[in-house]
């Protein structure tokens, strides 16, 4: 398997993390089904947070991302939208289209946190499956 950075990945994503991803996609589908498109990202964040918690998952909103620079940990107040079971990063958008910068943002969060799998979910689409990107580092 080759990652987005072009490096060959020797270890697949653990099945437990893949299962978290499947649950998160199903939860996003439920939120989108109930709310539709066109709301603020913050609304989708709080609803997806609630939906994931109702499924028995540990979820952290606005989780801090550590910045290590030249051997020091700095507080840059960088935060990711949702961290599920301390393994899966979910970055939410409510935009006309997912842009390369959005993917780069999630890939950077994966790199900085040492996580392997992230979901980029854009709720501003007619069908939620059109708005989900699965990124592996």
Write a concise keyword list for the protein shown above.
alpha+beta; about 25% strand; about 140 residues; 7 strands
Secondary-structure blueprint of this entry?
Blueprint: H1 15-35, H2 41-54, E1 59-64, E2 67-69, E3 72-74, E4 79-84, E5 88-93, H3 100-113, E6 117-122, E7 132-136
Parallel strand pairs: 5-6
Antiparallel strand pairs: 1-4, 2-3, 4-5, 6-7
Distance between the termini: 10 Å
Q: How many H/I helical runs?
A: 3
The largest pleated sheet is described as:
5 strands, mixed
Instruction: Pick out the low-confidence regions.
Output: none
Order of helices and strands: HHEEEEEHEE
In angstroms, what is the radius of gyration? 15 Å
What class, by secondary structure content? alpha+beta
The strand count comes to 7
Proportion of strand residues: 25-35%
Helicity, in percent?
Answer: 25-40%
The average pLDDT is 93
Strand order of the largest sheet: 1-4-5-6-7
Q: Give the CA-based shape.
A: globular
């Amino acid at each position: 398997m080759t990652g987005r950075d072009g490096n060959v990945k020797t270890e697949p994503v653990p099945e437990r993390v893949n299962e978290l991803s499947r649950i998160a996609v199903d939860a996003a589908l439920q939120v989108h089904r109930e709310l539709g498109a066109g709301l603020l990202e913050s609304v989708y964040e709080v609803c997806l947070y609630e939906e994931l918690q109702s499924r028995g998952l540990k979820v952290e909103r606005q989780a801090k991302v550590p910045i290590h620079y030249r051997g020091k940990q700095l507080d840059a107040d960088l935060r990711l939208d949702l961290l599920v079971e301390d393994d899966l990063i979910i970055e939410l958008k409510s935009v006309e289209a997912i842009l390369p910068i959005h993917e780069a943002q999630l890939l950077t969060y994966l790199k900085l946190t040492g996580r392997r799998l992230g979901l980029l979910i854009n709720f501003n689409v007619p069908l939620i499956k059109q708005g989900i990107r699965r990124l592996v580092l």
